[in-house]
Amino acid sequence: MRCCTRRAFLLVLPFALLLMTTACTDPADPVALGQLCQPAADACPTSVALHRPTPGRNSLEFTLTNLGADSTVQLLATTTQELDFRPPRDRSEDGSTILVKRDFPLGEGEILRDTFTSRELTIVRDFTLELSCLEGECNHRLEYLFFSESVECFDDGVCGRGEFCEQTAGRCVECVQDSQCSVQQSCDVQTGQCFPGGSAGCSTLTGEPPLHLFFGLLVLTVFAFRRRESGRAVVLTTTALMALLVLTPAVSEGSTGASASISAGGGPRILTGELGPLTRTGWGVAVQKQIRLRRVGASFQLASHSFALRDENLPNELRLSGYSITLGPRAYFTLPSEISLLGPEHSLEMVVSFEYTRWGVAENRLAHLTGLDLSFHALGPTLGVGWKWSGIQFIGQTNYSQIFDWPGGVFSVDLMIGLGI
Hints:
The structure is a single chain. The chain is 15% helix and 45% strand. The protein has helices at 2-22, 118-121, 211-226, 234-247, 337-340, 367-370, and strands at residues 29-38, 47-51, 57-66, 71-79, 97-106, 111-116, 126-135, 140-149, 164-166, 171-173, 186-188, 193-195, 259-271, 282-293, 296-308, 319-334, 348-363, 375-389, 392-403, 409-420. A hairpin with a 2-residue loop joins β14 and β15 (296-308).
């Protein structure tokens, strides 16, 4: 039994390693969404006061549409909160500090998408966003989505690796002024890096995850414990144990009257409905626990998901990402042994289930369509095929979940490898 537990810990290791390569920054939380109009219209004012209830960094994504002839509008963000702005920022006529002042000349029917980061909007809790007409007969609509990002620092003591705290933006950077760079370099205050050259700090993986590495690690892990080379995997076992404690419920060794298994894997994810055309095919990784008694059982699964946005006008690192918890009853049907081609001891088994999913969004860049909620209920069927070999099981499964209060659902495919306990 101890051997089985050790093997289960080793199996989860590739999942943990893949998860650690996907990101190292906290997600942004949507705070508010709405629209401004110039000139003002019913339920569409020319200005709005935005408030962030918790500590954080401000960012704003917006789409500006010119509904009339050629004209120019100005987007102004001001705050009355006093910070130690370095360098000092300009003041408006009423004495407020100007965070952003940007002019947008747009042609007839032109659409512009842009983002203001914490570099412009800082960490102030309250600011006013105003759309005004500068030239021509303006007829513009601005749709905005206001985010709160995690604060990295409040002073230099929190930053490591020789970095400095840009306090008004709440982030750790390589420099905030030229004197903090070498003689041959200058400080790029927009990125917080010395130029030329860059720092080797934390970054978010913008491409697809290294799934080939993930499945390679799975194969090597299985080979290691099949060869009983556990002595070489002590450190890996410890790492996997920590991941298992965080990502899954405790692995019970259960009574001998029922069988259990734990599997890890991943695969593609596709959003349906209104969000389908706005997102690319995503990916996810999962850890699944199954408990069964003969032909019936139950499963519990923890998974992550991430979808890149299709909008080429937005930065590549912007994604719709999050986590899900899935559970439900399962039925198992043994397929004819001729299908497996390896005899009755290696027969294929079909899995049928109808499962409940708690679908969570950690960074929702499409909140203007889904709303500001971060967690949703979902229901849907699961169909899978399993194959066992010497205590090792291979699973391929598909699931469609209809997400309630959400414009569509999600279709997922997972290839998993696991151990029976």
